[in-house]
Amino acid sequence: MLEQITSLNDVEVFAKQFISEGVSFHPDDDFNDYVYYKKNKPCYTRKEAEKRNQLMQQCFAICEKNGVDIYLLMFNVTLKETGMDRYIPLQSDTPQ
Predict the structure, then answer these.
(1) Other Cβ atoms closer than 10 A to 31
(2) pTM of the model
(3) 69 touches 93 (CB < 8 A)
(4) 3 state SS of 42
(5) Domain membership flag for residue 3
(6) Percentage helix, strand, coil, to 5, in the chain?
(7) Is there a domain that residue 31 lies in?
(8) For residues 94 and 31, what is the distance between their CA atoms, to the nearest angstrom?
(9) Where in the sequence is the domain holding 36, given as residue range(s)?
(10) In this structure, are residues 2 and 13 in contact, taking their beta carbons and an 8 Å threshold?
(11) Are the C-beta atoms of 25 and 18 separated by less than 8 Å?
(12) Element (H, E) at 68
């Protein structure tokens, strides 16, 4: 797990972390609310969730600073990492 988000590459690495953990995530959600469905147990301890919340706030700041839509960036990372980009086209923030 990254200790700090300082670049757009870090934002992508952070998003990939959740996919490797098997967690479906949304940038607006509090990581304290994430639960393993079948086990009905939290995905993260309080400390782990707070760290992830802090890092997500850094992701928002980096994306805003660089004029990048965090939702679009993380959606495209998710599509690529899960192989769903074979079925759902990657999204662009440029009108076509």
Answers:
(1) 21
(2) 0.90
(3) yes
(4) strand
(5) no
(6) 55, 5, 40
(7) yes
(8) 31
(9) 8-86
(10) yes
(11) yes
(12) none
